[in-house]
Design brief:
12 strands, six-stranded mixed sheet, 20 helices, alpha/beta
């Protein structure tokens, strides 16, 4: 999609950084150089090694979103997908350099970043020399965690190497934790270099990302995905038909562990890993949950133990619909591994990082969650089974009409949702799973079936009514269940329902059919008259303004009844037909 929230593409980066600062009061923006740093920078420089990272914008929250205690001391941003200039980087380095402890520079392996950050470091050294100051304590690490596009001859040819991706965040998370704990520059650099060497990432996207002010650089077909697409829309190594997540995600994990860089470092051995599942910008949270589940399972299936699992938005390619998976090998030794994981666990306080919450495992409460045990046995009853069967087939016949009405005035699912509930009840009855010799128990079980099968607002309304009806029937001898008594219990069930909804007759809902049925049945004892009253109530909804549900937001269509009321009529017709 090429639509964006924009004022001016030329000021987008600065405007965005201003937004970050106003929502994070501990931060300050050097607008001219697009540098983010903390308000207490002078204190930080005196206490610890300082760290900064940077690169082109468009990868938020990286890197400005990770400025804060426990991670970066500063970040410097270029234009969208473009490295910051060396004067910008030099300004950042001058500002945050710690004379007492030194400074670590972390960058991703892209030519522009390497050149501009490298030149800034060299210029800073020259400035110090020209001012007759001691050589600065500066170290630089270059992150190249991508295993999506690998040139096997890079080592021999001295090539450009692999790209830097989301693993960069883990590098400065671990280095930042060591710095805040008082580690020397050599120790901070050593840990950063270990993390770089032992971190591997693969990405996958469903399409490229639109660039604000420019648009889509290229597009995949609707049924295509690309493995290894870069965070600047660079082509990956394979474009293929979209696969189910259960196939795709394990293949990505397998690609990492089978890659030459991973095998070279792991030596073919398995062990513990940190798993980071990253949203490339436009993947929904619910999909991220699925990918995280599958990535965790696939990592275990590959023989590795994901002892720390992170899932979220860490490094994006603007609004790229995609994900990346990162594995970091934890040191083998028990002591070394524990120290490394302690750095992973060390809290960081910045907008882009979510700290894990650790609580004592006090045992499960599964038994309490299951509720009291029930001892009701299924039983058959010819009349109940006839009612359920007839009502089911009535709903099947009415479903197209109900669906059409809801497509016009709602979200179009009312017919299918009602049919799902009716089908669940019919199948349970047909397979003798209901306690049909015990009306309260039967209705309670039907309510549970409806809840599982229907969901949504209409489902819970049916459930609450059925729950209330079951409770009412506990006070009635089953031999005394005349039509009038059924009407009275239905009115009592409506009172239960009314405790949780403001819908009433006249609001254009299924209540417009349900209450007239119950009230007429209670007063006359006639199923036929009760059904006639319900049909009239549903028909009257044609002339009502919607006051509840999604139809409130849609202009009223003349002479169209409420879908929920019409659906209920199909149920009531089936019940009455079976009983007459």
């Amino acid at each position: 999609m090429s639509k964006h929230f924009l004022t001016d593409p030329k000021t987008l980066v600065k405007d965005s950084l201003h937004g970050l600062v106003v929502s994070n009061p501990h931060l300050v923006l050097d607008e001219a150089q697009k540098v983010i740093y903390p308000k207490n920078l002078s204190v930080v420089r005196q206490k610890q090694v300082t760290l900064f990272c940077g690169g082109g914008s468009g990868h938020e929250p990286a890197h400005a979103g990770f400025v804060g205690p426990g991670m970066l001391t500063a970040s410097v941003s270029g234009h969208v997908f473009a490295s910051p200039t060396s004067p910008q980087v030099l300004s950042c380095l001058r500002r945050i350099y710690s004379t007492d402890h030194g400074t670590l520079v972390v960058i991703k392996n892209y030519t522009g970043d390497v050149l501009n950050f490298g030149r800034a470091v060299e210029r800073f050294k020259s400035e110090r020399a020209n001012a007759r100051k001691p050589p600065p304590h500066i170290a630089m690490v270059v992150v190249d965690d991508d295993v999506g596009v690998v040139n096997p001859n890079d080592d021999a040819e001295g090539g450009v190497g692999r790209r830097g991706l989301a693993g960069t965040v883990l590098v400065y998370k671990i280095a930042g934790a060591m710095a805040v704990m008082g580690g020397t520059l050599d120790k901070v650099k050593e840990l950063a270099e270990y993390t770089v060497k032992h971190t591997f990432t693969i990405g996958c996207a469903l399409n490229a990302a639109s660039v604000p002010g420019i648009g889509m650089p290229r597009s995949l077909e609707d049924n295509e995905m690309e493995i290894g697409m870069g965070i600047h829309n660079e082509p990956g190594f394979e474009t293929k038909t979209i696969e189910p997540a259960r196939v795709l995600v394990p293949s990505l994990v397998r690609h990492i562990v089978d890659s030459l860089p991973f095998k070279k470092v792991s030596g073919g051995k398995t062990g513990r890993v940190v798993l980071l599942v990253n949203n490339l910008g436009a993947t929904s949270n619910i999909e991220m949950g699925l990918v995280t589940k599958l990535a965790t399972e696939a990592t275990r299936d590959a023989g590795f133990d994901p002892v720390r699992i992170f899932s979220g938005t860490y490094m994006t390619g603007l609004a790229m619909p995609g994900i990346s998976i990162t594995l970091t090998l934890v040191p083998d030794g028990e002591i070394e591994g524990a120290r490394f994981l302690a750095l992973v666990d060390q809290p960081a306080f910045c907008s882009g990082w979510t700290n894990h919450t650790h609580v004592e495992d006090a045992g499960c409460t599964d038994e309490a969650a299951q509720g009291p045990a029930t001892h009701v046995m299924p039983a058959r009853d010819a009349q109940w089974e006839s009612v359920i069967s007839t009502a089911y087939h009535s709903v099947v016949s009415a479903e197209p009409e109900v669906t059409h009405l809801d497509q016009v005035m709602g979200d179009g699912d009312c017919g299918q949702v009602l049919l799902s509930g009716a089908t669940a009840i019919f199948e349970a009855s047909s397979s003798a799973q209901l306690p049909l010799n015990d009306p309260p128990a039967a209705l309670a079980r039907i309510s549970s079936l409806v809840e599982d099968a229907m969901g949504g607002t209409s489902g819970i309304i049916y459930c609450l009514f059925l729950d209330g009806l079951a409770q009412q029937l506990h006070h009635v001898d089953s031999s005394a269940l005349t039509p009038r008594v059924w009407g009275k219990t239905m009115l009592g069930a409506l009172e239960t329902l009314y405790q949780y909804t403001t819908a009433r007759p006249g609001h254009r809902t299924l209540i417009d059919a349900l209450e007239p049925f119950a009230r007429t049945l209670e007063s006359t004892g006639s199923l036929a008259e009760a059904l006639e009253a319900a049909i009239k109530g549903a028909d009257d909804t044609k002339h009502m303004l919607p006051k509840r549900g999604r139809a409130v937001y849609v202009q009223q269509k003349e002479n169209l009844a409420d879908a929920g009321a019409v659906g209920l009529i199909s149920v009531l017709k089936g019940i009455v037909s079976a009983l007459q």
